[in-house]
Design brief:
The protein is built from 10 helices and 10 strands. Helix 6 links the parallel strand 7 and strand 8. The chain has a single domain, classed as Metal-dependent hydrolases (TIM Barrel). The termini are close together. The longest helix is centred in the middle third of the chain and has 22 residues. It is an alpha/beta fold and 284 residues long. Bound molecules: zinc ion (ZN). Zinc ion binds next to loops.
Length: 284
């Protein structure tokens, strides 16, 4: 059994076959959390979760790059609506997100976080950082209100994220998804009670082997971040999907010298605990 803790089958890359993709994952023994990056895709993630009796859950939140009014061509082309190429400067509408967050299929608030990487020339960086920080603190308030963990996106901002998590503790903790920091930074998050999400990036060469070796399996969650970040040895450019989380597991198995089944079992148990779900009823 495997657990793709961060997928985006709710994005438009799967608009024609999303249900089939999820069914394929479940048939292959992979549970999935679909993650929203704005209100529309969050709502879609919840709807998907309800289409399946078991094995598919949702996270609802607003990705920090959506807080800016402008264009974000790099990734948005595959999201829910093609008209949303432009980011709308959408904030966190607390009441609307609270309604979604209360849903029994919602297991985390996310993705939310800080992204200092995608600023462009002409951006009012100070104002954007201020807004990202404010919205993250609001998201933490929401997570604590519904007693759920957070699913954190963070790029070029680990120190600021650590500072915010220390000052604004999340009762149910959470995961730093798509972690690309050093093992030392990972340990700081682990000390605060957070898990480390690893995806296809870990399969691109040996840059993260040290991180994989140094971080105990008890703190690792697997994810795909599909449709992006297709893990090796699959072909570059192939649309990623939850089933391919097994390739991420294989990489960790190779580096740690543990069987891939054991990696699947332990990381799924980590996911089950952090998301507070009973998976025993759904034998995958
Ligand atoms: Zn994501």
């Amino acid at each position: 059994m495997y657990f793709d803790t961060h997928a985006h089958v709710n994005f438009s890359a799967y608009k024609d076959d999303g249900e089939k993709v999820l069914k394929r994952a479940l048939d292959g023994g992979v549970f999935v959390v679909n993650v929203g990056s704005q209100y529309s895709t969050s709502k879609r993630a919840v709807e998907y979760a309800h289409k399946f009796e078991a094995g598919v859950w949702a996270a609802v939140g607003i990705h920090p790059v959506h807080l800016k009014v402008g264009k974000f061509v790099h990734r948005d082309e595959n999201e829910l609506e093609e008209t949303e190429f432009a980011t709308k400067g959408e904030g966190l509408d607390y009441e609307k997100f609270l309604e979604l967050a209360k849903d029994e299929k919602v297991v985390a608030i996310g993705e939310v976080g800080l992204d200092y990487h995608h600023f462009e020339e002409g951006d009012d960086v100070a104002a954007l950082i201020k807004k990202q920080r404010e919205v993250l603190i609001e998201a933490i308030r929401l997570a604590n209100e519904v007693r759920k963990p957070v699913m954190l996106h963070c790029w070029d901002a680990y120190d600021d994220l650590l500072e915010i998590l220390e000052k604004h503790p999340v009762v149910k903790k959470g995961v730093v998804h798509s972690f690309i920091g050093s093992h030392k930074t990972a340990k700081k998050f682990i000390e605060l009670g957070y898990k480390i999400g690893l995806n296809g990036i870990a399969t691109y060469g040996e840059s993260y082997d040290k991180l994989i070796r140094e971080v105990d399996l008890r703190y690792i969650l697997l994810e795909t971040d599909c449709p992006y970040l297709t893990p090796r040895p699959l072909e570059k450019g192939l649309r990623n999907e939850p089933l391919f989380v097994k390739n991420v597991a294989q990489k960790i198995a190779d580096v740690k010298g543990v069987s891939v089944e054991e990696i699947g079992r332990i990381t799924s148990e980590n996911a089950r605990k952090i998301f507070d779900i009973d998976t025993s009823r759904f034998q995958a």
